[in-house]
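Why do we care about 3D structure at all? Because function follows from shape, and shape follows, mostly, from sequence. That is the central idea of this module. The next example makes it concrete: a single protein chain, its amino acid sequence, and then its structure expressed as tokens.
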Amino acid sequence: MAQSHIHSEADLDLALTALGEADPRFIALVAKIGRPPLRRREDGFAALAAIIVAQQLSTASANAIWGRLATVFDPFEPDALLRARPARLARLGLSAPKIRALKAIARAVKRGELALAGLAELAAEEAHAALTAIHGIGPWTADIYLLSCLGHGDAWPAGDLALQEAARIAFALPARPTAKEMLALAEAWRPWRAVAARILWSYYRAAAAAAKASNKASNKPSAKPVARSPKRGKRQKARKGQRRAAR
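And the structure:
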């Protein structure tokens, strides 16, 4: 299987052309939502740690916790994290499972069991296996790191719920596909499954925004005044007259 990476707009052009040839549905999706963004984060230990920190948290909460960690540990390196007491990390906002995961990853990097610098040279499956062999790094974390930080063109986070829902909506599937079904669905898109993921995520965000706007419009109160019945108006005037007379 050919190895693929997305490092530039030219790489993205190549991937979009190949995906369109493999599955014309992507041509229609890109025409509808536009070109997917070329997003790349920094790679390395800090980048992998940031993905761990962000798991199962809102963007605001994840950014707040990571901001505190990055301020206290500058630079954010394995040695500094290994020296930190769990109680201190907990005060910064980390849960006990995330503390264990980050320390396990830091130990693996320090011992040479996880060579982060060499992952970009491996095929996506090999790099994925190297990451998930370390305690605390699950399949989703590995795929997001490969896709977002290393630019692996064939990374495919099949267990991502937003990606599954995007596939259901975009391809009019009867139900949200499972991770296993997502793997089968994307087999024909190799070696550019990561770009397919970016297109589907963009489509999902666009569909969610459209649905939100539609709901907001449907719940908007009518601008027309509500007409009162003539009889009701007469009764209200009569009651007002009675109250004035009573005074």
